[in-house]
Design brief:
- There is one protein chain.
- The chain is of the alpha/beta class and 149 residues long.
- The chain contains 2 helices and 8 strands.
- An 8-stranded mixed β-sheet has the order 3-1-2-4-5-6-7-8.
- The longest helix has 14 residues.
- Bound molecules: iron/sulfur cluster (SF4).
- The site of iron/sulfur cluster (SF4) has 13 residues, from loops.
C-alpha cells in the first residue's frame, strides 16, 4: 500500500521525553489560517512511498515511538490505519498522532492504535510559544485503554 509522505526523520520533540520517528504525511484539507506547513497542503508535494519503505525507517532501534503528523494524516485514513496496524503488529513501538481534527470526530477504529494524540486545528489567534502550538489544541493520553486529557 502507498501513501504520500512529506518527510521522515528522528524527532526529539514530537513525543515528550521520548525519541520518535516522525512521519509527516503530505496533504491537508483543513487549511488553518496561519499554518506554518503550507507546503504540505498539496498531497502531491510529498513523495509516494510504500508501507515497506516507511517501515524500514520506523525500524530504528533508537526510537520508542512513531509519530504520525502532517499535513493531515487522517486525510489518508486508509493508509494511516494500515501503517498503524503494521507498527502495532510488527514492532514494540508506541504510536503518537497529530491531527487538526477534533478528538470527537476521529474514526473510532483509529483510536485503537495511538497512546498519545494532539488534536484540533491551529488557531493563529490562540498561538502560544509553548506546546501545543495554539491553546485550543488538546492533548489526549491513553492509559489502561482509557483516554484522558
Ligand atoms: S491541520 Fe496542520 S497542516 Fe493542516 S492547515 Fe492546520 S496547521 Fe496546517
Amino acid at each position: 500500500m502507498n501513501g504520500y509522505i512529506a518527510r521522515i526523520f528522528t524527532s526529539f520533540i514530537d513525543v515528550p521525553n521520548e525519541i520518535a520517528t516522525a512521519v509527516y504525511f503530505s496533504g491537508c484539507s483543513l487549511r488553518c489560517k496561519g499554518c506554518h506547513n503550507k507546503h504540505f497542503w498539496k498531497k502531491e508535494n510529498g513523495t509516494l512511498m510504500s508501507d515497506d519503505q516507511i517501515m524500514q525507517k520506523i525500524n530504528n532501534p533508537l526510537t520508542s515511538h512513531v509519530a504520525f503528523l502532517g499535513g493531515e494524516p487522517t486525510d489518508q485514513i486508509e493508509f494511516l490505519l494500515h501503517m498503524c496496524k503494521r507498527v502495532q503488529n510488527e514492532t514494540e513501538k508506541k504510536i503518537a498522532l497529530y491531527s487538526g481534527r477534533e478528538f470527537e470526530v476521529l474514526p473510532k477504529e483509529l483510536l485503537d492504535y495511538p497512546e498519545f494524540i494532539v488534536c484540533g486545528p491551529y488557531r493563529q489567534d490562540l498561538h502560544q510559544t509553548g506546546f501545543p502550538a495554539s491553546s485550543n489544541q488538546r492533548i489526549f493520553k491513553k492509559k489502561d485503554q482509557l483516554w484522558t486529557n
